[in-house]
Amino acid sequence: MADRLPPLTALRAFDAAARHMSFARAAEELNVTPAALSFQIKSLEEHLGQPLFHRLNRAVELTEAGRLLAPGTAEGFRTLNAAWHQTRRLQDNRTLTVTAGPAFTAKWLAPRFYDFARAHPEIDLRFSAGLRMMDFERDEIDVAIRFGHGPDPGLFSEPLAFEWMTPVMTPELALKYPHPEDLRGAPILFDDSLDFLEPRCDWAAWFRAAGVDFTPDHGVQFSQADHAIDAALAGAGAVLGRRALVVKDLHEGRLVAPYKLAITLEAQFRFICPEGLEERPHIRAFRNWIWTEIEKTAEVSEKLTYIAIRDVPSAHNISRQT
């Protein structure tokens, strides 16, 4: 039995026939005649020294050897196709596909992407909004913007500006509730998208940080952060706004942060791409643009006073306000 691998065309013919369990359909897939496909499989069997198929009257079945070879052959071609596709993508510096969560896409990327497109007309920017963990190779993704703690092993991962949360509302609503304790009577909006964080970063934590003994227990709840922010923009109430998602509205005056006290989070938005590809021209251009955009609104963060979430007093250490 020869140790060297058989010809790739013969393995390809076997893979197609094993998937379809039909020489005719396999030949159609590979755009060859059934006779040519049969010849390739016969040569593979001769190379191996045993049959791979039982030829029946109107069908074929894998032999024991065929059943053993089929999974590895299929996986091998998937790996080879992925590697070839990724290698060809290295030549493409015109298309940049970015995935980010729906809220970040709606509140950070979408309002700004025209500036990037105008500065880089040579790059076709594509967004894929979703929270599903993407596979860079399988899903043909160049850059991912993800929120959380990480780590991101095997990837280039760069934290973006540190994240904070503070109550935000329209300027008109802020006039009615000038002090933190006044929020006891305000309409409260809940962003449930951060419920996964530990320690919890919620209204109760912010009130404890402000020294107010109050835990809001009713209000409109939203599963998506951008929907909660849109409700705040409409004047429906106050929401705990996350830096990345409200900083543009704060910078441009549609929302205000009247109490100046913000909780800093341990989780962050991260710029992620396959390791070693961060300096590809179109990825580097996008990364530099993000940092330029962050710098444009840095003055919003400079106006706040911060307390880290882990330094927020626990509920039983808050003295009751009178």
What does this protein look like?
This protein is of the alpha/beta class. The protein has helices spanning 8-20, 23-30, 34-48, 64-89, 102-109, 113-119, 171-176, 203-209, 225-233, 243-251, 281-296, 298-302; strands at residues 53-55, 60-62, 95-100, 124-129, 143-148, 155-159, 164-168, 188-191, 220-222, 238-242, 261-264, 268-274, 305-308. A 6-stranded mixed beta sheet has the order 9-8-10-7-11-13, sandwiched between helices. α1 packs across α2 and α5 (102-109) runs parallel beside α10 (243-251). The protein is elongated. The chain starts with 7 loop residues before the first helix and ends in a 14-residue tail after the last strand. The mean pLDDT is 91.
